[in-house]
Amino acid sequence: MTFISTTRSADVVLIGGGIMSATLGAFLKKLEPSWSIVLFERLDEVGLESSGPWNNAGTGHAAYCELNYTPQAKDGSVNPAKALSINEGYQLSRQFWSHLVNDGSIGDPSSFIHTVPHMSFVIGDAHSDFLRTRYEALSKHTLFSSMQYSEDPATIAEWAPLVMNGRGEGRVAATRVPEGTDVDFGRLSRELVTFLENSGVEVNYGTDVINLERSRGGWSVATKHLASGERGGIHAKFVFVGAGGGALHLLQASGIPESKGYGGFPVSGQFLRSTDEGVALQHNAKVYGQASVGAPPMSVPHLDTRYVNGQRSLLFGPYAGFSTNFLKNGSLWDLPLSIRPSNIIPMLAVAKDNMDLTAYLVKEVAKSRESKIGALREYFPEATSEGWELITAGQRVQIIKKDSAKGGVLQFGTEVITARDGSIGALLGASPGASTAVPIMLELMQRCFPKSFKGWEPKMREMMPGYGVKLDEHPELAAEVAASTAAALQLAAPAK
């Protein structure tokens, strides 16, 4: 384990030890094994911030159950385009992980991925009508062909007993995709970084990157070892800022024109967690509901089966909150220190146009434990307050960007920012994030390494048979890929 970098120059510097940097590093080591790579992580282990299993929903986002990816139009219709795009992206991620398992680059897949059916569950006529419309829009597509729909309480009780036991009368509806997954992205990050270390990548723990400056042929990266205070530096031809909420400050420090106008709006949250195996064994699903009015999309309530360090547990939430730090282990000064002349107008515009979000966050912060247990009982009617621990989730920094019409908009998603010369790239934003790390990093590589990218494509097709193809439009290939990735990752065979 390296603590103080002695390397003076590198082809690539990766900032942050989460799933994004780990994925990019793994790609580059496979495609260009001779390139020198150095990774800096400010904590003492990788995958502890946004990639940590208790800091995110860990769903294996495939848009099977997340209703915010298919909003209902005013005419009642549902557009499946975004859900299809996210699902295609997740299939690419699975293919890359399968390749790494098959060639021995990473270890036992059961350490980071498990089959857990994905469900959407709604209450009342309006929500049930919407869910049926969503089901009809999605189930006709290859990637969603295994989706099931029911309004029968007995059937839904078979799928998720805890959701239905003790529930009163009234219309309910649910969809279910049996081959959904639960992913521990913290563990996967560690698997990937172990592969990088074994491949000659220098990994520096407990080391903060404090500044980025242009230098001849690349970037000067200034570092500080947090325990000793020792400062250092390294020259990099290419820098990737994969520092989660910390990416905005470093992107601003770089001074690249492409960073101008971006701001960040931090949203914190909490979950209720139960590690009582007697309860957890009664529920095998990720059950997502509808977000409250005014709630951000990442605050959609869900009752999840989780696997962390081999232990099965339940997670319910999130309960949104607000804190000015951009990282769970960050500073309360993160938000005020991110304000620049170039982003103050977009940030003020977003504040003015999102008063309902502000009111929602204030209300959430003020919720008592009893109120939070009450929200749990909407999805688990017989839940008792005992045995549920309130844990703090990771920070999510939503993107604020310029908008010609409104001055600024708040964007719930992820965005890749790259310099025109391709010498630096960064990722801002949140969901679906980790689950689509592979296509996100492919986009970044295409933009930052355009001369090399075409030559890499044959190798990428070897690693990911569905690369460059829309699986939804090729049913036979989709079935073949689903079966091969399920086998490699030791998951349940896909439903036919």
Describe the structure.
It catalyses: (S)-malate + a quinone = a quinol + oxaloacetate. Keywords: FAD, Flavoprotein, Oxidoreductase, Tricarboxylic acid cycle. The structure is a single chain. This protein is α+β, with helices and mostly antiparallel strands and 496 residues long. Helices cover 32% and strands 25% of the residues. It has 15 helices and 20 strands. The chain has helices spanning 19-31, 81-102, 125-138, 153-159, 161-164, 185-198, 247-254, 277-280, 334-337, 344-353, 355-365, 369-377, 437-448, 450-463, 475-488; strands spanning 9-15, 37-40, 113-115, 118-123, 148-150, 172-177, 181-183, 202-204, 207-215, 218-225, 231-241, 263-274, 286-288, 302-308, 311-321, 389-392, 396-403, 407-411, 414-418, 424-429. The strands form three sheets. Strands 4, 5, 6, 12, 13, 14, 15, 16, 17 and 18 form a ten-stranded mixed sheet that branches. Strands 1, 2, 8, 9, 10, 11, 19 and 20 form an eight-stranded mixed sheet that branches. α1 (19-31) packs across α13, α2 (81-102) crosses α15 (475-488) and α13 runs antiparallel to α14.
